[in-house]
Design goal:
Largest sheet: 2 strands, parallel
Number of strands: 6
Distance between the termini: 53 Å
Protein name: Glycerol-3-phosphate acyltransferase 3
Helix content: 25-40%
Order of helices and strands: HEEEHEEHEH
Main location: endoplasmic reticulum
Radius of gyration: 18 Å
Strand content: 5-15%
Low-confidence stretches: none
Number of helices: 4
Mean pLDDT: 84
Structural class: alpha+beta
Organism: Aptenodytes patagonicus (King penguin)
Shape: globular
GO molecular function, one term: glycerol-3-phosphate O-acyltransferase activity
Strand order of the largest sheet: 1-6
GO biological process, one term: triglyceride biosynthetic process
Length: 165
Amino acid sequence: MQTTQHVLFERSEMKDRHLVRKKIREHIAEKAKLPILIFPEGTCINNTSVMMFKKGSFEVGGTIHPVAIKYDPRFGDAFWNSTKYSMMTYIFNVMTSWAIVCNVWYLPPMVKEEEEDAVHFANRVKAVIAARGGMSVLPWDGGLKRKKVKESFKEEQQKKYCQIV
């Protein structure tokens, strides 16, 4: 990873997040360097939706080159449901699949608008990726795979439902 200039950090450490932001800004400033590949969801889900993006990727400036990736499960499923399958079972399933096929769409570059904050920019990029991949947009992050839904989020959804009814 050191030879390919990976930027490693511990998400829970505030100092690490600031250091990563600084390293990314420095990288972007040097025009001779290759673009940075970032997966702003921070995790993968079941190929039907695009989850909330981490805003840090969109705070540093520069041009975003969105890419939509959607797996075709007809030959083999690349999604690992860690609550259902062990790592060894998942690896066995992937290695014995006929093929892992995915569609990749390179979308037009996007730049943060003047009055736009990082969250709105991230949501705009996410919506473009979801639309191209034929996926739905989710307002929450991948933590729901491993944690219970917050009561405040449930209440917010209940209020929205009551307004509809």
